[in-house]
């Protein structure tokens, strides 16, 4: 029965080949539009968060109390990307900082001992820590060697600097300049191990962290105002499993208990605000795109059904039942939907990579679920063709034959 | 006569023209909405960037004129055996300038979170400070103010002045810290949003043209029959093109008007409802919408022309 239906449908499609192709290509265009835009919209939010997450939004400092001050070491830094840290995937960049004061000629200068770029084993593969891994900071210069310095944007950047530290003068080559747009522009950055050696200190003053965060909602606001201890267990779990700034800070504190995690609120508030505004906009545009795509598919089906009404009239005149006509139409439209699915899959795969590169300078893939949904839409709207043909078949056979 | 022909044609084709108009207007809404959102996103970003708070911290030299900002005077005092920095500032103005700062509690003594931790203070604690009993509120700012105790008061000789200005560069070279951390990200985000909106617009325009072409194909048979009648009655070729051209031009105008109104509604809805910002409508938008509508409908007109070209009158009369 099915092979007979398939042969009839294929024959019909061949006879009306231009209309069948127009239907297939319209469905393919609409599906491609949906797949591409859904991939863009749904990746845009996270990509936007990554773009905004290029600067440190948290600082871990040693905990101070009246009795004692705890110590931070580079081992604490590596805990950020370990499996023990619940939100380790949301850590985008991190660097250790040890501060000192020296003089540059006669001018006092603040010095930060840090890693420029250093790969260490992490939960998965390895992770590059260091000053130059913050995407929001602009570095101009050559890759720094271990004995080189990087100067902040507000400091002179000569080829060789004479730095006086603890009564000793060191001649250090300048590798480049870092522009952060913050008070770090007044710092001179040197290799952490070198600074530890010359100052004979081994503890860190702070760890700068850039993390991917989610805009806050009522639950996160409640935690900000009253603390996480105020939450009942179910709300605590919900809060813990969402990457709000407060949650990420809390989980960092779990793996670095001797640290005090300070959320840089002027950064996180801006990040949250922009992400929230962007994602709302993307969602609204996605809904409209969906409507436009469905309209395009419906118009193509209408064109196809209208063109076939005379054939259906002949079939009715020859005694074909409505059920058989419906079955044939569904097979034809299903065939077009299947073909368009294959076409749109291929085109979207190519275009998503291209467009995501043009828009965000990064390549991302279509979400599989969205891909399935987008291809399923033509099949779902095929049902609307049945309504159109039913309305057509309500007419007199003679009218149909005309 | 021409007007009557147009009216009759519109009336007979309302089943095709209505979905065409809906499809094109929808696509134009999407295109215009994307343009308005892309163009207005700058103000959304500016509003969000304002949450960053003060972007200049000026330490005025003695005798230097103090700009109009929030003045802060800092003193070191000893409390409970700890050296604490006490800042005096107009607190309400300070908090208004820095909307990202979080204050927990309703007290009159603002204790930075680090100082509060150091001194073992909690929100709503009652503290006797310089002979006055005060209720503690905790400040979480993520700045050096977290290690201050802040008292409200007027300042005549400030140690620092906090400012938010659109031109922070004017303070470069003075004893000032300029904070511009998110500026680079702002431009990146804005550029990405604009490119995304442009892609949405182009894809929506393609969908609109595809829809109109499909509906034009549905109507092609009837249109050919009509053209056949015109031809057999001796109507000149240009007359037929004039009718089709005028119909589609009018449709393009109507679709542009609907699409533009929809774009404003959509842009306003998205920006006010979701991003709480008024829409900025560029004069390019109606022009772009009209051009897209014209292209979509002219594509349909071209299809009629191609379908009727090189056909005999008898074939046209049959609608073949």
Structural features, described:
The complex is a heterodimer of chains A (402) and B (320). With 402 residues, chain A is an alpha+beta fold. Chain A contains eleven helices and twelve strands. In chain A, the strands form two sheets. Chain A has a six-stranded mixed barrel. Chain A has a two-stranded antiparallel ribbon with strand order 4-5. In chain A, strand 2 (91-104) and strand 3 form a beta hairpin. The longest helix of chain A is centred in the last third of the chain and has 53 residues, at 265-317. The two termini of chain A are 30 Å apart. In chain B, a hairpin with a 2-residue loop joins strand 6 and strand 7. Chain B contains eight helices and ten strands. In chain B, strands 1, 2, 3, 4, 5, 6, 7, 8, 9 and 10 form a ten-stranded mixed β-sheet that branches. In chain B, helix 2 packs antiparallel against helix 5 and helix 6 runs antiparallel to helix 7. At the A-B interface, helix 2, helix 5, strand 12, helix 8 and helix 9 of A face helix 2, helix 4, helix 5 and helix 6 of B.
Task: List the topology elements.
The complex is a heterodimer of chains A (about 400) and B (about 325).
Chain A: H1 2-15, H2 17-52, E1 58-62, H3 74-79, E2 91-104, E3 107-114, E4 118-121, E5 126-129, E6 138-141, E7 149-152, E8 160-165, E9 168-179, E10 187-191, H4 192-199, E11 206-211, H5 218-226, H6 233-240, H7 245-255, E12 259-263, H8 265-317, H9 322-360, H10 368-393, H11 397-401
Parallel strand pairs in A: 3-10, 7-9
Antiparallel strand pairs in A: 1-11, 1-12, 2-3, 2-8, 2-11, 4-5, 6-9, 7-10, 8-9
Helix pairs in contact in A: 1-2, 1-9, 2-8, 2-9, 2-10, 8-9, 8-10, 9-10
Chain B: H1 2-12, H2 14-49, E1 56-58, E2 70-79, E3 82-89, H3 91-97, E4 102-104, E5 109-112, H4 113-119, E6 126-129, E7 132-140, E8 148-152, E9 160-163, E10 176-178, H5 183-232, H6 237-274, H7 284-308, H8 313-318
